[in-house]
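Why does residue order matter? Because the sequence determines the fold. Keep that principle in mind as you read this record.
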Amino acid sequence: MSSKIKRLIVGGVSAVALMATTLSAQATTYINIASAANFSATLADIWNDFHAYYLTNYGLDYGYTVTTGPTATLKADIIAGSPQFDFFFSADQATPVDLYNNHRSLVDASPFEYAEGSLVLWSGPLNTVNISGGLPSPLTTNFVIAAPNAAPYGYAAMQVLNDAPWSLGLTTSTTYPSGYVYTATSIGNTYNAVLAGTYPYGFVAKSQVCRTVSGTPTWNSYSSTTYAREYYAEGTSSSNAVPPNPISSGSQPYDHITQYAIQIANSSRTTAQSTELTNFVNWLNGSTPGSTAHSVILSYCYRWAL
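Structure:
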């Protein structure tokens, strides 16, 4: 599977990017978004509500293209200027901050936090292994994480694996596979590899395997033999999708996965596209009356939402 997947969402309809020219004609305007893979499904739901609101109330048929992939790859695309984006949802804080501090001409505004993610060891629905008690020690089975040098969730998994009892000493420049640790190019491809049964389990984003049902975080039901265990940034872990409050400190901590977004400069953006982008940002941050963005983000089991 390609590390970069381009999709077009217009009027709630999703299609591969090769059909973008045809389908984009259905929209009044569209903007180009770069999104970390863990947020792509959440973004689609946010956009569906945003699109419906502006179509119903103002007759504006907004569309968007989205390129998903590892944060480092999306950053490189932004710096290269190809493709040309209007907005970027990163899986970390450091990348948008670096764009703002060191590539100021490429951005139109300061970065802001939109969510905080969490790391989950997940198995299933194929070749399921009961890892609800946590990652085995000693390791005896190949498993997968996102590439630590490109994906923040992979970096967090590396931090967990470098703590006791495994103490693997992995780095972003380690040659993988290393021991039983294999990598996928993005957290999206990591999830897909476990979903397809290529690996019996792996570290994925909680947003990929959890939904909030009636206000309660619940593991997605793929089959009767799907297992998950959440690892908290503070340390400690639990097989319960509902995190403890407060979360106590313990072993295997990792850097909080604070996810930041930033508006990207685009010299070819039209006035109509600028208006769409402003309306989308206002929908995202809750400035628009009736915005559902906050509740949608929380429905994907993120620890925090703007």
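The chain has two domains: 5-116+258-305, 117-238.
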